[in-house]
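Please discuss these two lines.
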Amino acid sequence: MWFDTWADLARILLTGVAAYVVLVAMVRLSGKRALSQLNAFDFVVSVAIGSVLATTLLNADVALAEGVIALGLLLGLQYLVASISTRWPRARDGVTS
């Protein structure tokens, strides 16, 4: 079967557009660290962000607000770890390869 209902497709389209806009805004607010100079830690966070976005789009049990909070949490934690690692060399050694 191609799909179950038109409502499911509409939910994916609307949630997808909204989640995309929120993700782009959050990444812009979090700065260049979210996309450039990827180390192992940044790569893991990027994969997690992709997983949250996919789950938000495809799982009807996950509300858009929950996905947005999860994206914000991941980007906020990434910013926090990046800030800590720039101030303390020992923390940097634990985060970078």
